[in-house]
Amino acid sequence: MQDQSGSPTPNPPRDRQNERQGDLLRFFGTWVRNPLTLGAVAPSSASYCAAMVAASTTGIEGPVLELGPGLGVVTRALLEAGVAPSRITSIEYEPEFAKTLQRRFPEVNVIHGDGFDLDKTLRDAGATRFATILFAIPIVKMAQRERQALFARYFARLLPGGNLTQLSYLWTPPVKPVAGLFEVSSSPIVWDNIPPARVWIYTPTGSSRTSGH
Ligand SMILES: C[S@@+](CC[C@H](N)C(=O)[O-])C[C@H]1O[C@@H](n2cnc3c(N)ncnc32)[C@H](O)[C@@H]1O
Fold first, then answer.
1. Which parts of the sequence belong to the Methyltransferase domain (predicted)?
2. Cβ neighbours around 72 below 10 Å, total
């Protein structure tokens, strides 16, 4: 639904409630078929999404990248926090989720593709730099070195001072810091998420910030 200015208007509460219940069933059904790709039995809670957005450096001018948006709970939190839809690119691997996202958020740049391979998915030869990256793709199957290499590639895509935030149910940092590139901290635990989770926050170290990351 849109108003005259083209901005999304909030759904009436009952519509939103029905949508949430439908999403819960759909998410769970997709998880049963493909648990490792989905990585969660339910979409993140509203307070978790708000915490993720609050920890992300959306205040830096520039595009915002969302990886693994699912059915759009974090996308919605970004919009509710005042991030313009035209700034957001959301990359989702599950084709039916990507279709739903594009329908729900027509002004967001939704791409059905692989968020692990940004050069291939964005087809920009590495040129686009982001104010922040909100990352929710499961990486349980990856070794620690691969995770660090992946995040190093993401950091090469950030504007100066930009950060990366990660959804994870682990209670220790899923990706360990890389000296000279990024440090890691976390939000407090968000208890109403299923399961309770922290937002993991990866921030450029002083040396990488001065070298342009
Ligand atoms: C844990 S869910 C998170 C969904 C949503 N962000 C939330 O917080 O509820 C992970 C999402 O990542 C998507 N995903 C998995 N592998 C992906 C990939 N290689 N590229 C993009 N998205 C991927 C899944 O389809 C799923 O929607």
1. 64-162
2. 26
